[in-house]
């Protein structure tokens, strides 16, 4: 068995998740006899029905899952602190943690310590480069580090998590894998003030991610992600926004009142703290200064929005139709997308091609993607979404819509896209039997040097159906979904597709 076969086997059998769950159980339970404990855990896996039924906290005892009471019987409190880099969230988080006796977690500090302690590890060396350039660390890595930190403090009455989440994808992962926070505090600050504070901090502390180029990139990432993130938590009724341009004592006073009102209802409510207009965090000042100090940055800055703002991107996007094309390998979706793109003036985007093109580049992101794939792990959904947004931006202004082929591959991806870009106008499912798709793939393989075996095709189809069924069910209740009989001739299928697309104009 070669390395790739071994990785495929481990991923297919859900072994990495099993090991993570076992490790979390050991960390939380600290048994006297770890071997006996692991034996009991593996027996439980059999009783549950296999590794795919195991979650990260399966072996965490119930009393640890039910977090300690706070303030007369209320459950343990946790709240997240987010805001632009330099908004003062670290300072305010520490003060809040001290005032209420909560435990403080800085996500940025967690990652920096991990990088420092594992500097020879290839994965963390790549993450270090990503952070140094101002990009976000991989979502799965960040969530894993937070979970491991939380497992070390099961008896804390409250947790303040500083600098998290940075985007909607991280928020969704946190809720799926850990919990829903009790409160999210957003510190709104003008871009100019953020830039001034970061450059001053760079002089005083010498942090590697406070260099000039990283500062600009971090501000760009913040502006890109802030609006959908705030909207997401506003819809859940969890967020309170504060003007962080003021003196830090004034900000702390207002946050304290908000915490009192939200977590300790016996105290007075904060005055209008949650009614602050979030548009102030996206002020019209430019993030990237076009003055002479920034003229020599070169193309490595990767400013995916160019001179466009997030608002401009969303405004142009409203004029376009977005269509998801779902179908198994051999269903004909790629061929039909090309024909539809020509007929309607759409842009065809294939997520598999985006990944292939990115891997052929020499970017830091490509190195991270390659490293993830070599370990047999799925490419983080946040990376795929960023590739999609960049491809869509490149076509804005000269396209009538987007045919996105092979996306989403899971419900979480669809939710992230909806929060950060918008819901699709139409979802098309190419309905085709496994026998037909197998026959087509085998026939296609006759003219290709790389011929998939029947067994390999069966695995691909199994993976497709496992992922597609919940996605289709999700969109059946959320948006317009049309199933197309893809068993017919290409001409007949094309006519069906045209009828479906005509219905959204």
What this model shows, in words?
The chain is α/β, with parallel strands linked by helices. It folds into three domains: 3-63, no CATH class; 68-288, P-loop containing nucleotide triphosphate hydrolases (Rossmann fold); 310-502, Rossmann fold, CATH 3.40.50. The protein has helices spanning 3-12, 15-29, 34-48, 62-65, 89-100, 107-117, 122-132, 139-151, 168-177, 191-205, 212-236, 248-263, 310-317, 333-344, 351-359, 364-374, 381-395, 411-420, 434-445, 454-478, 490-502, and strands spanning 77-83, 103-106, 158-162, 183-188, 239-243, 321-327, 346-350, 401-405, 426-431, 481-485. The strands form two sheets. A five-stranded parallel β-sheet has the order 2-3-1-4-5, sandwiched between helices. Helix 5 (89-100) packs across helix 12.
CATH architecture of the largest domain: 3-Layer(aba) Sandwich
CATH superfamily of the largest domain: P-loop containing nucleotide triphosphate hydrolases
Shape: globular
Q: How many structural domains are formed by the residues?
A: 3
Please bin the fraction of helical residues: 40-55%
Largest sheet: 5 strands, parallel
Strands ordered across the widest β-sheet: 2-3-1-4-5
**How far from one another are the termini?**
53 Å
